[in-house]
Amino acid sequence: MNVGESRGARGSVVGAEEGVRRRPKNRRAQIAATSATAFGAAGYHGVSMEDIAAGLGISSAALYRHYPSKYALFREELLRVGRAFTASIDSPAPEGAAQRLRHMLTGLIGATVENRATVTLVRWEGRYLEPADRAVLDDQQNAVLAAIDEQLTVLRPELSSPERRMVSTAMLGVITSIADHHAALPARTLHKLLAAACVSLTGPGLPPPATVSEPSVRAQIPDSFKHELLLRKAVELFHERGYPNVSMEDIATAAGLSAASAVYRFYRGKSDILAAAFRRAADRVSGAIGPAVAGTPDSGAALGVLVDQFVADTFDERALAVVYYAEFGHVPAEERAVLRNIQRLSVQEWARLVREVRPALSAAEARFLVHAAFAMVIDLGQTFADDPIACRARVGFLMRRVLLG
To answer: Does pTM surpass 0.85?
Structure first.
């Protein structure tokens, strides 16, 4: 069995006699699976109850008999996966911190694989939960991180509590990274690969924390450069509120323009701004590869340069890094195809370098590790912001551990 893009259940059961349509006993499970796939593909705001009903082959009225609103369905699915994560770490574990940690990792990987589509929502759409529900989801995630922290306390007693939380956050980012892409691996291979990557993060040698915070280094944009200013302000708003909740008027105001109509002198619309930002992000990752390879003596050294550059770019543009994953579905379809091709080629080049250092890995395994390393850096940048505990040198060190073992 391959682990690939999640698929929702569809249709209803047809009776063997006289073609009688019967309501299946697992209708709520079917609804959950179909809605998770729909939300994961188009985002919470991009899906209607009618879309979900059509995917199930039932009427909207029949769907509303099970759930009173789209939000109720969204909420239940996210919190269900949160419960699955906490349950995966609560199962009976063997003796010994190392064995217990591996047991937890196995459970978390299994829960992530089983709920791949919904984990996408947890990672990027959870902000659309109402505050009380978001607090529940946060508590579920904190319970998972605390359980990993507990084992790290025994395995790495020299680490401070914030350092243990940094490592556990990195582990969770590695595991849930499979929700950020649709690549496939045999389930057993995937479990082994992700578990080994997580365990590699527990090894010694962590660089010291930074002595001061490392704020983002961003080029200053003069007010007269409206094209660039609009791009930056729009990304900041998309990150803060979510793309569907930002209007052209909001972007114009943030950029100091008198009216939304002024934005159209620079961009055709909101999606055009998003596409321009994404193209820049994708080109930056792909454009770094050639110089790194040409300017270094071997693949390991090239990877070192690329890791440092990726961490620096991600930390300098934290909002764009998140928006790239969270709002990808809002980019026009033709532009998505271009962006996916750029990303695919970039990941392949990173994976090629990884395999030249670790020839035992398959091409698919190396690609999974590249995706895992990217996700981990983004998660650490978001969780710790400018905290010296998760400074750039440390995050780069952890990224190398994921890629190179």
So the answer is: yes
The residue segments making up the domain with residue 377 are: 271-404
Q: What is the mean pLDDT of the chain?
A: 89
3-state helix vs strand vs coil in the chain, percent to 5: 70, 0, 25
Total number of domains constituting the chain: 2
> Which pLDDT score is estimated for 37?
84
Provide DSSP, 356-375. HH-TTS-HHHHHHHHHHHHH
Domain assignment present for 247? no
Residue 197 near residue 369 (C-beta atoms within 8 A):
yes
Same domain, 75 and 175: yes
CA-to-CA dists, residue 297 to 300, 305, 308, 358, angstroms: 8, 11, 17, 17
Q: For 64-94, how does the pLDDT look when each residue is reduced to its tens digit (9 = 90+)?
A: 999 999 999 999 999 999 999 999 998 777 8
| Whether the Cβ atoms of residue 43 and residue 325 lie closer than 8 Å to each other | no
Residue after which a domain boundary falls, among 200, 221, 250: 200
